[in-house]
Design brief:
The chain has one domain (about 30-135). Helix content is about 50%, strand content about 5%. The N and C termini lie far apart (about 45 Å). The protein is globular and about 55 Å long. By secondary structure, it is an all-alpha fold. α2 packs antiparallel against α3 (about 45-60) and α2 (about 25-35) packs parallel to α4 (about 65-80). The chain has a two-stranded antiparallel sheet.
């Protein structure tokens, strides 16, 4: 019988899954902002932006006030440009696949003009935390 050693690849993988890497949320916010404002990238990269937005939603409470403010403004840019962004991503992704995703993750529903208009209208001038505008839809994950 083989004895497990620290050089065993399975042990290595187990150690990796046990080791949690701290995300650089400032960099994630910046990358999201770059993706929102640049439709010259591949549609796959723009699709990746939606996954990145999920990560930011899941880590929202860990963001600094400045990061929340920046994210808020990037969200507004995405909402304002939802039609073009949706068309760009739709080259590689069928937004009908997003129907099971809750609408509080509105970035997966850029094809839903009614929802996007409502989110923009309801939250653009409404929510504030201190003197910093709050994130458009603060996602509560249970």
């Amino acid at each position: 019988m083989l004895k497990k050693s620290k050089n065993n690849f399975d042990d290595f993988l187990n150690e990796l899954t046990e080791y949690e890497v701290e995300r650089n949320l400032r960099q994630d916010v910046n990358n999201f902002g770059l993706s929102v404002t640049n439709l010259l990238v591949s549609p796959y990269e723009s699709l990746n932006m939606l996954d990145l937005r999920d990560i930011l939603a899941e880590n929202y409470q860990k963001l600094s006030q400045g990061e929340k403010r920046d994210l808020y403004f990037y969200d507004i840019k995405l909402l304002r440009n939802a039609k073009n962004t949706c068309a760009h991503i739709a080259k590689v992704y069928d937004f009908n696949c997003s129907k099971s995703i809750p609408t509080n993750r509105w970035w997966w529903h850029l094809n839903n003009k009614t929802l996007i208009d409502q989110i923009y209208r309801d939250h653009y001038f409404v929510k504030r935390v201190g003197n910093v505008k709050e994130h458009i839809v603060e996602v509560e994950l249970h």
